[in-house]
Amino acid sequence: MDVVEGIKRGDRRALARAISVAEGGGAAPLVAALFKETGRAFTVGITGPPGVGKSTLTGALVTRARKEGKSVGLILVDPSSPFSQGALLGDRIRLSEHFTDPGVFIRSMASRGHLGGIAGATGDAVMLMDAFGKDLVIVETVGVGQSEIEIAEVADTTVVCLQPGSGDSIQVLKAGIMEIADVFVVNKADHPMAGQLRREIRVMMTMLDWQGWAPALVMTQATTGEGTEQLWEALWSHHAYLQESGELRSKRAGAFAHEVRNLIVGRLAASVDGAMAGAVASGLMEEVADRVLDPYAAAEQILQRFDPKAPAATAARLAPRVRATVKGLHTASAAEIAHHREAGV
Ligand SMILES: Nc1nc2c(ncn2[C@@H]2O[C@H](COP(=O)(O)OP(=O)(O)O)[C@@H](O)[C@H]2O)c(=O)[nH]1
Ligand SMILES: [Mg+2]
């Protein structure tokens, strides 16, 4: 495959094309061809509410990484909400100085057709950038709902970014983000409430019983680059901890378990949709509506004919047979009922 060869050669257009293929759910052959070349990049996830300064901070980190010649892959995750187009535009503006750097590859992502959802598509993109030879892959994701939890599955080190004076610390407690943070960043250190937020996070940290790594807490002012050095050091301390403790391997194994499960569930869901479409087309649901068949029995019927490996189209073709079976069942049970009546049961 020429895309694979292109990635191995360091062709940026090949990498861009491969990520598009992955976004659309077609990563399997690419992963098969490149997987052995991966596992070398240090992957950092940066999450937090919109507007806290993640992109500005990411830009500062990219500058820091480039200073020592590390190549960087950057993924901006689009949670596919209506407001995200504007957010992504803002991200692009804040990272504009890096777009022309050949050592930096920047990509926005949406989940689109990927079976594993946003985490699956992002995971594939990380892997492709890793295979491409990026030393550092940074994933920026907006902390809304599940996305930040999922990003912790993709990243070796997760940075939770907060800003003063917005009630963020309370949010953090509520959403259970505490557990995913390897590094806390209080950005906008120039804000008068910054010290208070730092104290709140410290207090929250004492309430949890850390085993192994206790999250680092760094104050930054992303707009001036202040604190970037401390953040950079915190990232690499965590990286060293992961390697020395052996946690990197177990953490990645855990993440792969999650990813593989998502792939299986995605495949099953596609087959279920195919089987359902067939059942609906053959009128099975009208029989349920007519109270001829109950919903549990209908599910049972479809499941008995269900082939989890069948692509959607094949599953749809199964439907007439499903229907025939159901008809047979009705006849049998009607006869049985008659029999029981006769027998006076
Ligand atoms: N005062 C102040 N503003 C900042 C700082 N960092 C980022 N900002 C501003 O906060 C806004 C949102 O930043 P952005 O990086 O797009 O946040 P994101 O949505 O989390 O990616 C922008 O106007 C930034 O210039 C900081 O340290 N101090
Ligand atoms: Mg951003």
Task: Give an overview in words.
This protein is α/β, with parallel strands linked by helices and 345 residues long. It has helices at 2-9, 12-23, 28-34, 54-67, 84-94, 117-132, 147-154, 168-175, 194-206, 228-245, 247-281, 284-289, 295-304, 312-317, 319-342, and strands at residues 42-48, 72-77, 104-109, 136-142, 157-162, 183-186, 216-219. Strands 3-2-4-1-5-6-7 form a seven-stranded parallel sheet, sandwiched between helices. Strand 5 (157-162), helix 8 and strand 6 form a beta-alpha-beta unit. Helix 1 (2-9) packs across helix 2 (12-23), helix 4 (54-67) crosses helix 10 (228-245) and helix 6 (117-132) crosses helix 11. Mean pLDDT is 83; it is low at 318-345. It binds guanosine-5'-diphosphate and magnesium ion (MG). Magnesium ion (MG) is lined by residues 54-55, 87, 91, 140.
